[in-house]
Write a structure and sequence with these properties.
single chain, mainly alpha, about 65% helix
C-alpha cells in the first residue's frame, strides 16, 4: 500500500519524484543500447536489428507498427533489419522509445487519469507535431511524433506517486477552468512537463526530446531545441482545440506568439493540419497502442 503524501505543498523536486519511480518505469536495456549505437556513425541496420532482436516482445511490437496502415508499405516487413533499412535508423529509435515507454507505463497502476483519454490525446499530439514539422521542413520530423506522444508523460508519474495532490489538481482545473500546469505549479511547486523532461533525461534520451517535453507549456523558456519545443507547444494546444471542438480564440491555453515566430507558421494552418490529422490519428492509434489502452 502506498503511503499517503502530506496534504501541504510538496518539498520534493521533479528529480526526486522521478528517482523514486524510475526503476518501476525503466526502459529495457536494448532501448538504451539502440540510443547509444545511433551516436556511432559506423552502426549499420544489421547491427541494430541484431541488438533489437534479442528482445522478442519489442521486436514483435516494432514489426506490428511498421506493418500497420500508418506506414502503408506495399509488402510485409519480416525483420527489424529490413524495417531499419526502409524507415531509417532515427525513426526506428523513436519507435523503440515509444513502444518501450508505453510498455513500461502499462505496468504502473493509475486510478486518477482516464488512461484511454490520456493515450488518445498523446497519440493525436504526436500526429499533429509530425505534420507541423513537415510544414516547417524539419529534418528527421519523425522525432516530433515521439516528442508529442510523450509530452504529458510526467502526468503519469505525478498521479501515481502523488495521488492525493493529483486529485486536488484535477478538481481545481475542472471547477475553476484553470490550466493544469498552472495549478500544478501552485500545488506542487513544479509541473508535469518538468517531471517528464526529467524522466527523459534520466532515461538518457536526446536532449532535444527532453527539452521539447520540459518546455512545451512555456516555449520561450527553452534555451536550446527551440524549434522542437515550439512545435510541441503548438501541437498540444491544437490537440486540445480538436478534442473540445473549439476555435483558436476560445481555447483555454492560447498559442504563444513566440512559437508562431520561431516556426514561421500562423494560425491559418490549423484547419488543414487538423483535417489531415484525423485519418492519420486513427492509423497511428491502432499501430502504436494495444487496443485496451484506448477503447
Amino acid at each position: 500500500m502506498q503511503t499517503p503524501e502530506p496534504t501541504g505543498p510538496t518539498s520534493m523536486t521533479p528529480r526526486e519524484l522521478v528517482s523514486g519511480v524510475v526503476r518501476l518505469v525503466s526502459l529495457p536495456e536494448v532501448c538504451l543500447r539502440v540510443s547509444e549505437m545511433l551516436e556511432d556513425s559506423r552502426t549499420s541496420a544489421h547491427d541494430l536489428g541484431r541488438v533489437i532482436g534479442r528482445d522478442t516482445g519489442l521486436t514483435a511490437r516494432l514489426l506490428k507498427i511498421v506493418n500497420s496502415a500508418y506506414y502503408g508499405f506495399p509488402s510485409r516487413i519480416e525483420t527489424v533489419s529490413r524495417a531499419v533499412a526502409i524507415i531509417g535508423m532515427r525513426e526506428l529509435r523513436g519507435l523503440v522509445l515509444a513502444a518501450s515507454a508505453i510498455e513500461a507505463f502499462s505496468k504502473v497502476p493509475n486510478d486518477i487519469l482516464n488512461m484511454a483519454h490520456f493515450w488518445r490525446h498523446s497519440v493525436y499530439c504526436g500526429v499533429v507535431a509530425q505534420l507541423l514539422a513537415a510544414e516547417c521542413n524539419v529534418l528527421h520530423k519523425e522525432r516530433l511524433f515521439v516528442a508529442g506522444l510523450l509530452h504529458d508523460i510526467g502526468k503519469l508519474i505525478v498521479s501515481h506517486k502523488l495521488p492525493q495532490k493529483a486529485r486536488i489538481i484535477q478538481q481545481r482545473c475542472e471547477a475553476e477552468e484553470l490550466l493544469d500546469f498552472e495549478v500544478e505549479q501552485q500545488v506542487l511547486g513544479f509541473d508535469h512537463a518538468e517531471v517528464g523532461g526529467e524522466l527523459l533525461q534520466q532515461w538518457r534520451m536526446p536532449e532535444s526530446l527532453a527539452d521539447a517535453v520540459r518546455y512545451h507549456h512555456i516555449p520561450e523558456s527553452a534555451e536550446q531545441s527551440t524549434m522542437d519545443v515550439c512545435i510541441i507547444h503548438i501541437a498540444n494546444v491544437m490537440t486540445g482545440i480538436a478534442e473540445e471542438g473549439l476555435e483558436i480564440e476560445t481555447s483555454l491555453q492560447p498559442i504563444d506568439p513566440y512559437a508562431w515566430k520561431v516556426t514561421g507558421l500562423s494560425d491559418s494552418i490549423i484547419e488543414s493540419v487538423l483535417t489531415e490529422a484525423g485519418p492519420r490519428f486513427t492509423e497511428a492509434l491502432e499501430a502504436i497502442l494495444p487496443r485496451s489502452f484506448y477503447s
